[in-house]
Amino acid sequence: MNAQFDPEQGSAIRLPQPYLLFLADTVEPGFAKTAFGLRDWAGDKCVGEFSIGATVTTGLPHMTPAQAYAAGARALVIGVANSGGVLAPNWVASLVEALEAGLDIVSGMHVRLSDIPQLADAAARLDRRLIDIRVPPAGLPVGTGRKRSGKRILTVGTDCALGKKYTALALASAIAERGIPADFRATGQTGIMIAGGGMPMDAVVSDFEAGAAEILSPDAADDHWDVVEGQGSLFHPAYAAVSLGLLHGSQPDVIVVCHEPGRDEMLGTAGYKTPSIEETIELNLMLGRRTNPNIRCGGISMNTSKLDADEAARVMAAESERLGLPVADPIRGGEAFAALVENCLK
């Protein structure tokens, strides 16, 4: 079963739930963003976590696959999004254990579950499903650059894995709470698992990136907002291509720049310094004007999870004054986040 976005039939995907989150042997929190995203935005669908030596934890109860199945889980979700989306050989035995316990497996990795013989054999023997999220639909078009109706916000970043998904989810929710029609448009595996549909942008062939983004956010009513989950960073030496295709194809009216204070080096790429917020705004607006001449920056979303409340407030207020834009942490919310939402909508 391949989870795909179908603009003709809607984006609903029926995944077996609830989930057991598999953290494998992850030691880098940034690579466990799938598990954290599901915990934070689909916590009612998660019964626990399962690992084989991970030092990262979601804080959910640790369970074996058999215990999770007894607690109601019906799928093990690979909660890891490591560099390259690879599935390590030492994970396979644990995944087979999950199949034998009665769980299907849901994966957002680049590698196909069915391409791993031990998993394919076990799934066939046990009548279990191997569900790959990171499979784009067939027949994607190239981008046209045609201006579409409706309004769009795109979250962009100084780096990857610093809050673009969380920011988009929070913005879409806040806009809807104001009585304004809004949809969260998922572009990564975790977002797709949360939303039930979307477009796995980093699995799309480069020539079709912009076209895929156009399909993801089609024509809409003039007062409707699509809040598009960003991917990567225009500055990342590995992932800039998907960021640019998404920027051109989504044609955002507004960008929100996501940043983590104190992150000086780009994730997973030693020696590459994180760009400044100003550089990030400038480059995204310059390239974004190619398909939307009226693009603007609505503000800054900061991931202040490593700061206490007082320090976070001080940093955000100082940056807001320096940049002349709203700066907020969507998880902390409050007046600062309300100001960011309002500036995006004006």
From TrEMBL:
<dbReference type="InterPro" id="IPR011669">
    <property type="entry name" value="DgcN-like"/>
</dbReference>
<dbReference type="Pfam" id="PF07755">
    <property type="entry name" value="DUF1611"/>
</dbReference>
<dbReference type="InterPro" id="IPR035086">
    <property type="entry name" value="DgcN-like_C"/>
</dbReference>
<protein>
    <submittedName>
        <fullName>DUF1611 domain-containing protein</fullName>
    </submittedName>
</protein>
<feature type="domain" description="D-glutamate N-acetyltransferase-like N-terminal">
    <location>
        <begin position="58"/>
        <end position="136"/>
    </location>
</feature>
<feature type="domain" description="D-glutamate N-acetyltransferase-like C-terminal">
    <location>
        <begin position="142"/>
        <end position="335"/>
    </location>
</feature>
<dbReference type="InterPro" id="IPR035402">
    <property type="entry name" value="DgcN-like_N"/>
</dbReference>
<dbReference type="InterPro" id="IPR027417">
    <property type="entry name" value="P-loop_NTPase"/>
</dbReference>
<dbReference type="Pfam" id="PF17396">
    <property type="entry name" value="DUF1611_N"/>
</dbReference>
